[in-house]
Amino acid sequence: MTKPSVVLNYRRILTFIIFGAAAIRFVIAPQTSIESRGDTLLFQLWGYSASTYGLTKVYEHPIEHPDYRIIALPNYLPPYLMTLHVLAQVHALFEPATAVGTPLSSIIFKTPAILFELATILLLAHIVRRRWGESWALGAAVLYAANPAMLFTTAAWGQVDAINTFFMVLCVWLLTQRKLTWAVVAFTAAFFIKLQSLALAPLLAYAIFHRWPYWRTLIRSLGAGLGTAFMLCLPFVLTGKTNQVFQVIAQAKDTNPVPSANAFNLWWFFSGGYWTYRTDVASLFGMPMVLIGAGLFFSAVAFAVWFRSRAKATEGLWLAAAFLAFAFFMLPTQMHERYLFPFFALLIPALPAFRPARWLYVALSCTFLWNLVVVFIILTQHEGTRLDNFWGGSLIVAMLNVAIFAATVFWYTRMARRRAVT
Fold first, then answer.
1. Deepest in the core among 17, 68, 219, 340, taking most CB within 10 A?
2. Are 289 and 270 in contact (CB under 8 A)?
3. CA separation, residue 63 to residues 50, 67, 110, 262, 377 (Å)
């Protein structure tokens, strides 16, 4: 039985970690130089649009702003647009609604992602503590809270990957607890924040079809997923605009039809570099690159399912989820530099059990941060300037990522054959 003084000490240290992580993030958040380009400026403009013209008109009403022209319409699904709508209204209490890109607006619009990142730290600590004890739990919390790549993406750049990552971690944890219906709810929430969360779908399908009678489990899971989707899109359902939601999902594959959207992965070798706009329907070895990428990812899905079938322990599920997140970044075309983000949180629960996983976490943290920083320099200093794929060591990072991925496949294969995760 754990002594009360030990539990109290653990809680005090974890509280210190959380408050420290929050303080660092909110100190970084007011700067505006990093997010002044691309998506995060759009987030504020989309919030302005939702607040000005009405939430359910964001997909159809041209955005008219006194300082910006030709603003892209939203390509995010309703849950995050509803969040932006609320944030814009909060922002309007302190500054003119048109004041985007200010330090205050930066703090306001980054707050949801920062809060979900803090929630992920707490969730990871809870997961690790239950299986490995307080010391490992505190280590996991520090490892995630202090990861420079997480800080850069969420607090500095203002991206929202922390939100869907929280729900992805929650989904896998619920699967380990055999709470499949709630896992589907968490997965649906992750998917409706960022479509890239679809990478976890094979593990849900595996869980569904391994619970007898599977048809009853399937019906219950479909009901949970559809019910969650209905609630997340409720304003658009009530106004008869669900077709716009489906259009966003259907058009996602056409948003960046390039071999690599600045992700230093397998397809970076064939990207031609920055601002080249090479299409991913171009042929490689007689086949469109987009089809080759899809085929490679589906092969990775089959591998992950095979691994999970032989790695029955809880850590096997976390390793399979992390592998799918890694494969989703490495193998399909059209990947952005940020899409490796969920991998780190999904791998952390397996770190206490496997030393190679710790090396994997550190190695990919370094290459991921390198990828983020190089892309930031490109966006802020060389926008529109064609640069080859060697610039800033990009090709070196891509080579390292490919080598790490190959080593990961080898390691997973060896563990599965030896049934080392049972």
1. 340
2. yes
3. 9, 11, 21, 27, 28
CA distance 275 to 261: 9
Tokens of 274: 């920055």
The answer to whether the CB of 405 falls within 8 A of the CB of 290 is no
Q: What is the DSSP letter of 173?
A: H
Q: Each residue of 247-273: pLDDT tens digit? A: 999 988 777 889 998 899 999 998 877
- Average pLDDT value for residue range 361-388: 84
Contact 159, 39 (CB under 8 A): yes
Between CA 305 and CA 200 the distance in angstroms is 11
Element (H, E) at 414: helix 394-418
Predicted confidence (pLDDT) per residue in 152-210, tens digit: 999 998 999 999 999 999 999 999 999 999 999 999 999 999 999 999 999 999 998 88
The residue behind tokens 């049972």 is: 422
Question: Which residues, other chains included, contact 75 with Cβ-Cβ below 8 Å and sequence gap of 6+?
Answer: 248, 251, 252, 255
* Parallel, antiparallel or unpaired: strands 260-261 and 287-288: unpaired
Tell me which amino acid residue 313 is: A
Q: Which helix (H) or strand (E) holds 85?
A: helix 78-92
Q: What is the pLDDT of residues 274-329, one digit of tens each?
A: 767 788 888 888 899 999 999 999 999 999 999 999 998 999 999 999 999 999 99
Chain CA centroid to CA 17, Å:
23
